[in-house]
Every structure is written in C-alpha cells, then in structure tokens.
C-alpha cells in the first residue's frame, strides 16, 4: 500500500541533468511511486535532458535498471513500470549552447496547458544559464516553476548572486528551493505535533525546556564525493541548510495559517534572532573536527585526496536564540561523517521536576522528559517519561519510552513515503510551504559566515576524531561545561 493521493494537474517535468545521480537515485523513483499510487495524470510527461547522445529508448533502459536498483522489488510491477517508462522522453542538449533550446520548445509546445516544472539536477553554476536559456525561448512564462537544490551558495555573497540570477527570470512565487529534510514525514509531524495539539504549546518555551539537541550523524565517510565535499565541509553541506531548517521548525512561533509565506515569515524571524558567534567566541561555542584513519579505513584527508585539507567533516555548535520564548535555552547542533551510526534526531530535553516527591521512597533518580523526533534510521516520535514498576513492595521507577510509531495501525505493506515524492507533487500543486524562500537562505548564511570567518582568523585547525566514534572530545567538553551531555548516537 502506498500513501493516500490527492490528484494534481497535468504536468510536464523537465529534469535538467536527467542522467545524473540525483535524477536516478531520488527523482525517478519518487515519480514512479507517485505514478504507482495513481497520482500522476494520464498525459503528464517527464523529459530528461543531458549532454549524453542517446535516444529515449536507451534512456529508458538506463532508467529501468536504475529503478530496479533503487526501489524495493515488491514495488517493481511490470505493467506499472512500462506505464511509467512510457511517460519518459530524453533530449540531448548542452544547456551552455544557446542554439540548442528549440527541441525543448517543440516538445513542450505540444501540451501548452500543462504545468511546467523545471528541475535543476545539475551543478549550481548552470542554474543561471538554464534560467536565461528558458527565458530566451519564452519557456519561463505562464504556469512554469523552477526547482533548485543545495548547494545554494557558498557564502552570503554567492547566495545573493544566485538568488539574483534565478530571480531575474522566475519570480519568488515560482521558485522552489528544496531542502529534502522538510519533505520528511517526521518533520511535518513535528509541525502537526506543535500546532494541532493543545498539549505542547504551553510548555514549548524556556519555562519547561532545558535545551534542544539536533544530531545528524552519518556512519559513512565522504567516499566518491570527496572533491566536492572538500570545498564545502560539514558546516556548508549540512548545518547551513538541513540543521538550521530543523532548528527553525522547533523554535518558530505558531504561524497564523499553514500557508507558505506565513510559515516562512516565522522561520525567518528565528534565523534573525540567532545570537551571532564571532571572533574568539567560536572557540567556546563551536567545534570543528576531521576523522582520522582507522584500523582499516582511510582518513578524511586520504578520502578527499587532499593531504593538507583543513575541511571539517564534523561540526558542533551551541546556538542561542535571542527572544522571549527561548532566552537561556541552548540549541546544540552536531553533524559529522564516519560516526558511530547513521542517526538523525531532534531531542527536546525538558527540565527536571522542581521538587522530588519520591526522593525518600526510591533510590531511582528521576530523569528529565525527552521528546525525541527521529528522522533516521526509523522515522518516528518517542516521549521519555517516568513510570512506576508494576507490583507491590516498594516504589521502583524507571524511564519508559512512549512510542508513537507512524506505522502503528497501518497494514504490513505500508511504507513511509520518501521526501521527494511529497515535494515533487507540491511543486506541481504550487504549494511552497515546505520550500525555502530566498531571504531564509540568505539569513542562514548571514549567521554561518561569521563563524567560518572566525575559524579562519583564529587559524583553528580541525581536531581529529576516531572513525566509528561519538565525535571529538571537545564536543563532549562543550556540553560538560554547561552541565549537560550529548544523547547517544544509537546504532
Ligand atoms: P551528477 O551525477 O554529476 O549529474 C549531473 C547531471 O547534469 C548529469 O545528468 C549531466 O549529464 C548533466 N549535465 C552536466 N552538464 C550539463 C550541460 N552543460 N548541459 C546539460 N546537462 C548537463 O550530479 P548529481 O549528484 O545528480 O547532482 C546534481 C546537482 O544536485 C548538484 O548541484 C548536487 O549538488 C545537487 N544535489 C545532489 C544530490 C544527490 O543525491 N545526488 C542531493 C542534493 C543535491 P551529462 O554529463 O550527460 O551532460
């Protein structure tokens, strides 16, 4: 069983970079699943575009093989597969060649009523080139939308110029900046939890919350992405986008409605309220580190093929939000590669009870309540509460996990939809709520840039950490100074 479907309008989706990794691993499987769920209208088309000279039949062979690799075998139904492949067309076109746009015009003009979605699955240096190419042949008009994905700049200045380049052709209401974390079911559930339940809002502040931890740990190293990653590092690749978006969703005020700009206005206020980390403050409030070689695994520098690299493969930050709701509540962020496990979690750690009623009758310490929002490996929510052990004879207590599994009550073949399924259909629908606005991206860079500048001016070298570990010692010390400790990176 797949997730419930709400029909969308007939569309043509053009994937620039249709033969690449993003298209093959994420976009085509996501579209196949939506097609299998019956959400893709009968005449909708997917037009893949790249420089490789091949025809549509050869592209379909490549797509079929890739779908078999990236979907569960139970999802690969022969009739559905043929129907889906029947929607694909391939155009070979170097987008830097100004004379090569005619074929795309011919194909798209066959269905002038269709919603047009242009997905940039190419490097960001081509975003402006493609936007101008589309404008040059009038394909940017009407029902056309442009989708871009990270990296959205390298710093504030480059993010501004990227926004200006694409913004010169597509107005903000037709620009979709994807952060796929926002398409994850658990992340949307965080908003449902906060804003559709009366229970949490009164305690969602510094009166009841001690601190927040956001962890995005990976067990793998940089692998074949080494040369790209070495120019970015964990700060630019993970913190500036994914971790800061999660922080915004936890910290934002309730929007007056769940419409795009109402939600994005509230996220922007959080980004603007972040206390700057500048100069030597960076030594106390940030940690940057790089994994060393293990017994049988290469070091970061070996994988990145840069023996002098000072790029961070791990970052931890103590972020503070200067507003009434969050005064005195630190948000600890950490992300890294080659850690103990692949594990992404937001943990809201509540304060301890103000008075211990049970201190004289039990030796068991009362541990604080924790609301844990797990993004991977198993998406779901857990609430840690204290309960009494059943039975007579004393009063023994322990902490219990109230498990709020999303799969509970669903049939055995239910599966969690992938973020791209949701986001692609939202673009066709014209719903921007789960996409970043240009000013959000710039505000995030505006907070990140001074930290990177501080690292450079202090000359702070990354600390080495063991592969497969919980991260560097200084990250543990950063929390210990505040009388706290990181949550376990669970295997
Ligand atoms: P990739 O595997 O290198 O694919 C790039 C695609 O662009 C290929 O189809 C390539 O095909 C095409 N291309 C390159 N130059 C072109 C040109 N001048 N004209 C037309 N097509 C051209 O890269 P990717 O991993 O898919 O990533 C694409 C973008 O998405 C990058 O900016 C990346 O940072 C971002 N992204 C990727 C992922 C992911 O999971 N892969 C996740 C998030 C963001 P030809 O060489 O045949 O032209």
Topology readout:
Blueprint: E1 11-16, H1 21-36, E2 45-50, H2 56-70, H3 78-85, E3 88-92, H4 102-109, E4 115-120, H5 127-136, E5 144-149, H6 156-167, E6 175-178, H7 185-195, E7 209-217, H8 226-251, H9 260-273, H10 281-285, E8 286-291, H11 300-303, E9 314-319, E10 331-336, E11 343-350, E12 370-376, E13 380-388, E14 397-405, H12 419-429, H13 438-458, E15 463-465, H14 473-480
Helix pairs in contact: 1-2, 1-12, 6-13, 8-9, 8-13, 9-13
NADP nicotinamide-adenine-dinucleotide phosphate is lined by residues 17-22, 25-26, 50-52, 94-96, 121-124, 126, 149-151.
CATH fold name of the largest domain: Dihydrodipicolinate Reductase, domain 2
CATH architectural group of the largest domain: 2-Layer Sandwich
CATH superfamily of the largest domain: Dihydrodipicolinate Reductase, domain 2
CATH class division of the largest domain: Alpha Beta
Bound molecules: NADP nicotinamide-adenine-dinucleotide phosphate
Number of structural domains = 2
Using only C-alpha atoms, the radius of gyration works out to 24 Å
Largest sheet: 9 strands, mixed
Which parts are unreliable, with pLDDT below 50 for 5 consecutive residues or more?
A: none
Distance between the termini: 28 Å
**Total of helices:** 14
Nearest-integer average pLDDT: 94
Number of strand elements: 15
Q: N-to-C SSE series?
A: EHEHHEHEHEHEHEHHHEHEEEEEEHHEH
Classification by helices and strands: alpha/beta
Strand content range? 15-25%
Shape: globular
Oligomeric state, counting identical vs distinct chains: single chain
Helix content: 25-40%
Name the strands of the widest sheet in spatial order: 14-13-12-11-7-10-9-8-15
């Amino acid at each position: 069983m797949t997730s419930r479907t709400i029909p969308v309008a007939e569309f043509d989706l053009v994937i620039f970079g249709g033969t690449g990794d993003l298209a093959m691993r994420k976009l085509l499987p996501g579209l196949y699943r939506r097609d299998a769920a019956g959400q893709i209208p009968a005449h909708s088309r997917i037009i893949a575009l790249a420089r490789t000279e091949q025809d549509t039949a050869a592209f379909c062979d490549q797509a079929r093989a890739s779908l078999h690799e990236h979907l569960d075998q139970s999802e690969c139904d022969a009739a559905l597969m043929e129907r889906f492949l029947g929607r694909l067309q391939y155009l070979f076109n170097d987008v830097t060649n100004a004379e090569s746009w005619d074929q795309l015009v011919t194909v798209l003009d066959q269905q002038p009523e269709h919603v047009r979605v242009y997905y940039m699955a190419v490097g960001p240096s081509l975003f402006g080139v493609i936007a101008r190419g589309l404008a040059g042949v009038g394909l940017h008009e009407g029902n056309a939308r442009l989708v871009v994905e990270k990296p959205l700049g390298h710093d504030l200045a480059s993010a501004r110029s990227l926004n200006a380049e694409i913004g010169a052709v597509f107005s903000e209401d037709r620009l979709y900046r994807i952060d796929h974390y926002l398409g994850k079911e658990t992340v949307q559930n965080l908003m449902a939890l906060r804003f559709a339940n009366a229970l949490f809002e009164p305690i969602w502040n510094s009166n009841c919350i001690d601190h927040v931890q956001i962890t995005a740990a990976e067990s793998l190293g940089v692998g074949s992405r080494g040369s790209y990653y070495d120019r970015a590092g964990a700060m630019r690749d993970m913190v500036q986008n994914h971790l800061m978006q999660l922080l915004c969703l936890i910290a934002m005020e309730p929007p007056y409605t769940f419409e795009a700009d109402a939600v994005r206005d509230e996220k922007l206020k959080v980004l603007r309220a972040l206390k700057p980390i500048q100069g030597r403050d960076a030594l106390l409030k940030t940690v940057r580190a790089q994994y060393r070689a293990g017994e049988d695994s290469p070091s970061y520098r070996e994988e990145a093929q840069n023996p002098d690299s000072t790029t961070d493969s791990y970052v931890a930050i103590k972020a503070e939000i200067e507003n009434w709701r969050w005064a005195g509540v630190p948000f600890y962020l950490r992300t890294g590669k080659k850690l103990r496990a692949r594990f992404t979690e937001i943990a809201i750690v509540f304060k301890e009870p103000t008075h211990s009623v049970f201190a004289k009758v039990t030796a068991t310490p009362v541990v604080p309540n924790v609301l844990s929002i797990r993004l991977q490996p198993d998406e779901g929510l857990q609430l840690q509460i204290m309960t009494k052990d059943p039975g007579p004879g004393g009063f023994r207590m322990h902490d219990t996990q109230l498990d709020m599994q999303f799969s509970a009550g669903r049939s055995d073949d239910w599966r969690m939809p992938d973020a791209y399924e949701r986001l692609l259909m939202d673009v066709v629908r014209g719903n921007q709520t789960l996409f970043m606005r240009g000013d959000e991206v710039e505000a995030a860079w505006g907070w990140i840039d001074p930290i990177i500048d501080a690292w450079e001016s202090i000359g702070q070298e990354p600390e080495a950490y063991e592969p497969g570990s919980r991260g560097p010692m200084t990250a543990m010390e950063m929390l210990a100074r505040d009388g706290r400790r990181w949550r376990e990176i669970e295997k």
